[in-house]
């Protein structure tokens, strides 16, 4: 009796320990998304590019501010020279050094360039907006991938449970067939068939476990963490059944990342045409500076040293009169690019609306399949229980039991698959509408 109590306590302790470890390793969907958003490489890269575009959004980058430069020139020569003067005299210098030193600051401020500087600043704002949209698009795509991968694991886990149940039935069948054979009430053929079916069920369970392990590695890769990280997941798939086509269509028009990016690209094409046209206007700039110059010469001329310093200022203007018809060519190409941008926007609108129609149809179909397959699972489970009891009593043969097993496994597989596909359709609809969130 004491041994039985000790044995029971050991089993209970192991069960509690495994349960605690499972709880400690449990990965919720919310935790998975948070980890993915913190670690995902695509998000990090897009955020870095967004930071670059934010750094570029400056007035000076667009050409609105003056440019001030410091200049320094120091040239030295060492020469031997002989000069004959008009009065008949000569002046000689051996290894004489000549120095020219110039330094100062200059300013150049373009005050008018056909409004191109203002257009350039508007383009920088659109590039910054494009960076924001790319970050948003990567975040939503990452969330969608993580949710899909997570619920793929849930679906596989449900199928594993169904296969495990079928395996236990096969074990019971083998045990029963072995007992019947030993007492002479069953045939060896029945026993061998039970062993073959048990091996087949064991093989199926092993393959599904291998696929499950591979999917876990894939999720760890999406989360950009150690690929060998062990974790457990929740065992249910909850599908939002309240999505409305009209609401999704409204959200798509205003929030779809592809449409927003296309709109920014079209705006950039418009600004590019405006900038190209600006080259027809004159360019006017203010110039100014302060310079200091110092020169020393050998004693062969009238001056051996000079110093000068002073302030200069002025204005420059230029206009393109003729540049080999390049201006006309540039404007025509800019117009074509703008037209292509508009066509691309129309193409994307057509594409995302077609996706919406197809995805919503899949969503509704799979919702109906979920309800249908759920009822079928209940029926298959009840049928398996009744068939197993009848098999134990000897009122039915192994073929009927095997058929009930297959129906049970197939029904669970179809139910899990319908749930998973319905969830995928929901995720895809939310991503398309730009509303997917944690």
Automatic annotation (TrEMBL):
<keyword id="KW-0998">Cell outer membrane</keyword>
<dbReference type="GO" id="GO:0015288">
    <property type="term" value="F:porin activity"/>
</dbReference>
<dbReference type="GO" id="GO:0009279">
    <property type="term" value="C:cell outer membrane"/>
</dbReference>
<keyword id="KW-0732">Signal</keyword>
<protein>
    <submittedName>
        <fullName>Outer membrane efflux protein</fullName>
    </submittedName>
</protein>
<dbReference type="InterPro" id="IPR003423">
    <property type="entry name" value="OMP_efflux"/>
</dbReference>
<dbReference type="GO" id="GO:0015562">
    <property type="term" value="F:efflux transmembrane transporter activity"/>
</dbReference>
<dbReference type="InterPro" id="IPR051906">
    <property type="entry name" value="TolC-like"/>
</dbReference>
<dbReference type="GO" id="GO:1990281">
    <property type="term" value="C:efflux pump complex"/>
</dbReference>
<feature type="signal peptide">
    <location>
        <begin position="1"/>
        <end position="22"/>
    </location>
</feature>
<keyword id="KW-1134">Transmembrane beta strand</keyword>
<keyword id="KW-0472">Membrane</keyword>
<comment type="similarity">
    <text>Belongs to the outer membrane factor (OMF) (TC 1.B.17) family.</text>
</comment>
<keyword id="KW-0812">Transmembrane</keyword>
<keyword id="KW-0813">Transport</keyword>
<dbReference type="Pfam" id="PF02321">
    <property type="entry name" value="OEP"/>
</dbReference>
């Amino acid at each position: 009796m004491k041994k039985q109590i000790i044995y029971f306590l050991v089993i209970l302790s192991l069960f509690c320990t495994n349960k605690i470890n499972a709880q400690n390793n449990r990965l919720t969907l919310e935790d998975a998304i948070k980890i993915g958003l913190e670690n995902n490489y695509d998000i990090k890269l897009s955020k870095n590019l967004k930071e670059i575009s934010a750094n570029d959004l400056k007035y000076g980058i667009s050409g609105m501010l003056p440019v001030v430069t410091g200049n320094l020139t120091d040239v030295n020569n060492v020469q031997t020279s002989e000069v004959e003067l008009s009065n008949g005299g000569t002046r000689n210098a051996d290894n004489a050094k000549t120095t020219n030193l110039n330094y100062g600051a200059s300013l150049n401020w373009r005050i008018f360039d056909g409004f191109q500087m203002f257009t350039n600043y508007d383009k920088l704002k659109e590039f910054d907006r494009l960076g924001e949209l790319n970050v948003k698009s990567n975040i939503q795509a990452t969330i969608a991938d993580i949710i899909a991968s997570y619920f793929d694991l849930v679906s596989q886990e449900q199928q594993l449970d169904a296969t495990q149940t079928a395996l236990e039935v096969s074990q019971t069948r083998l045990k029963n067939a072995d007992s019947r054979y030993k007492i002479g009430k069953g045939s060896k053929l029945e026993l061998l068939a039970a062993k073959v079916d048990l091996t087949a069920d064991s093989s199926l369970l092993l393959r599904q476990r291998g696929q499950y392990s591979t999917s876990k590695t894939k999720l760890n890769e999406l989360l950009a963490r150690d690929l060998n990280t062990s974790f457990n997941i929740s065992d249910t798939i909850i599908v939002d059944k309240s999505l409305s086509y009209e609401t999704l269509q409204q959200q798509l028009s205003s929030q779809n990342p592809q449409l927003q990016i296309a709109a920014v690209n079209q705006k950039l094409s418009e600004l590019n045409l405006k900038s190209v046209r600006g080259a027809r206007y004159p360019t006017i700039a203010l110039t100014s500076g302060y310079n200091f110059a110092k020169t020393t010469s050998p004693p062969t001329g009238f001056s051996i040293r000079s110093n000068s310093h002073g302030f200069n200022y002025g204005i420059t203007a230029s206009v393109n009169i003729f540049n080999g018809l390049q201006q006309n060519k540039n404007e025509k190409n800019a117009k074509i690019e703008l037209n292509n941008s508009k066509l691309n926007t129309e193409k994307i609108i057509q594409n995302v609306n077609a996706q919406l129609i197809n995805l919503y149809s899949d969503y509704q179909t799979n919702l109906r399949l979920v309800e249908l397959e759920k009822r079928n699972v209940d029926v298959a489970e009840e049928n398996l229980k009744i068939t197993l009891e009848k098999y134990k009593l000897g009122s039915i043969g192994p073929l009927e039991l095997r058929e009930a097993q297959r129906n049970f496994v197939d029904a669970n597989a179809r139910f899990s698959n319908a749930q998973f596909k319905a969830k995928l359709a929901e995720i895809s609809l939310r991503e398309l509408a730009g509303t997917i969130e944690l």
